[in-house]
């Protein structure tokens, strides 16, 4: 079995202030061949890289390739801190568009932005080009590295020995869990939660995506994803065990005024939670983090849903706020289902959208 070829696409990056008179920062792309040429049937990687240590908060990689010579199998992200907003590629047109962000909200200095996994179909000179609307967003500034890019070429030869190099079959799964079959719509979000250790103590080898999430599990994941902690003391919930992994997160939510007790002062961490109550917890958190405008036209954002009349009065503003932020959406029947319980898979998707919303707001 021949070893695969990795074409390192070096992107030379120069940081420029973003002002009305500032020139565009240049970013050149050149090809460095590490091994022999690719043969028909082989899979190979093209790494899109930046060569200096400048950090980026967001990225957009947009380009074209000769689809008659190679098929783009998938993007491969080696930086576990990247959250992905857009994965689009068209093998008929020979185009791709990938967008994402650094989930630490600090900016990443990893050299590889994204790798492109191709499979060679026919011999020839495969041209891969990045377009001039590729961008890397600068952390803590309303500015971007605007890229002036050049293309690269990969030589594809005829297969001489009938052997094929396959990389994709050995790729890591989207999540570390063994029970996500049938939940493709939630796989990315669950994978993000796992990589960020949001599911620690909540899931091990199995995620149980169809299981109803409990109040304690959800508030724990919410506080972790929003990085909310508190050292202040507050009245404890009598039904929350101090030795539980959920304790510090539930108490942080109580101090912040996000989690409130029932008429008996209990939190009921093992109870399931409705969709509208989830929305209330999330929206209160967003308000505490100053991520949203507290004034909202409720009718504008939930007036079109068929079951709007079933939303409890206390949850109207919260559900409308999440619809406005595009964190919450109706199902295929245009229903909000406010009184339905939320599954673990649904919770992961909602929290991943919350993380994406927070990073975009932080970007300014």
Topology:
Blueprint: E1 6-13, E2 27-32, E3 38-39, E4 43-49, E5 58-65, E6 70-76, E7 82-90, E8 95-102, E9 112-120, E10 124-130, E11 135-137, E12 144-146, E13 152-157, H1 184-195, H2 215-225, H3 247-255, H4 275-288, H5 298-302, H6 316-324, H7 344-363
Parallel strand pairs: 1-4, 3-13
Antiparallel strand pairs: 1-2, 4-9, 5-8, 5-10, 5-11, 6-9, 7-8, 10-13, 11-12
Description:
This protein has 7 helices and 13 strands. The protein is of the alpha+beta class and 364 residues long. It folds into 2 domains: 6-170, Immunoglobulin-like; 184-363, no CATH class. The strands form 2 sheets. Strands 3, 5, 7, 8, 10, 11, 12 and 13 form an 8-stranded mixed beta sheet that branches. It has a 5-stranded mixed beta sheet with strand order 2-1-4-9-6, with no helix packed on it. The longest helix is centred in the last third of the chain and has 20 residues, at 344-363. The protein is elongated, with a radius of gyration of 24 Å.
Described by strand count, sense and barrel closure, the largest sheet is:
8 strands, mixed
Total domain modules: 2
Number of helices: 7
In terms of structural class, how would the helical and strand content be classed? alpha+beta
